[in-house]
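In response to the reviewer comment on reproducibility (Comment 2.3), we provide here a single inverse folding case reported in full, input and output, so that an independent group could reproduce the run without further information from us. The structure tokens appear first.
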């Protein structure tokens, strides 16, 4: 719960810095609110399944067999990034998305290692995906449940590269804020 709240707070604070575009309306608010409970449940399940596999199972199995975090944190993070590879986005954007999700995976792996469970990583992942899927989504195939969508899609690499770099910096800021909050609560 702490990780979810910290993630949402940092994402809300980061929205103060202009993104360089005005989001377009997605779903109408009443329809969005009708879908919200089921959407939250589905995202909770989706992120939970990914966290159970990548951090709960794979990371723990590798940690039991290898002494170095380079293996038990690095390999699941690389695989997590590669699971998000979409070659149809073109090579630059496709590999930048892999790097961004791999970085997220590394942050989640660290939270799992520090807390001894997947709770903080799952909360971080859940809040991140709620914002990216339900609040402001990239125009395209995953934007059907979003309240707002970007005025561009994945084909516009020149626009997306700086936004993905900003997203990576925000991911690191959220990770650091979660680590700080967990340290303050003694976890």
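Designed residues, in position order:
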């Amino acid at each position: 719960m702490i990780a979810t709240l910290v993630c949402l707070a940092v994402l809300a604070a980061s929205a103060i810095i202009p993104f360089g575009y005005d989001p377009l309306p997605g779903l109408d608010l009443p329809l969005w609110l009708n879908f919200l409970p089921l959407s939250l449940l589905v995202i909770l399940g989706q992120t939970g399944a990914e966290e159970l596999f990548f951090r709960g199972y794979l990371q723990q199995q590798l940690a039991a067999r290898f002494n170095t975090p380079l293996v038990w944190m690095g390999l699941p993070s690389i695989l997590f990034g590669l699971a998000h590879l979409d070659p149809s986005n073109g090579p630059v954007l496709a590999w930048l998305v892999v790097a961004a999700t791999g970085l997220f995976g590394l942050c989640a792996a660290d939270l799992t290692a520090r807390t001894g469970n997947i709770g903080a990583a799952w909360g971080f992942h859940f809040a991140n995906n709620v914002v990216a899927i339900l609040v402001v989504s990239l125009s395209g195939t995953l934007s059907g449940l979003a309240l707002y969508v970007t005025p561009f899609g994945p084909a516009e690499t020149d626009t997306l590269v700086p936004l993905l770099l900003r997203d990576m910096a925000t991911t690191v800021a959220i990770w650091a804020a979660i680590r700080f909050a967990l340290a303050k609560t003694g976890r």
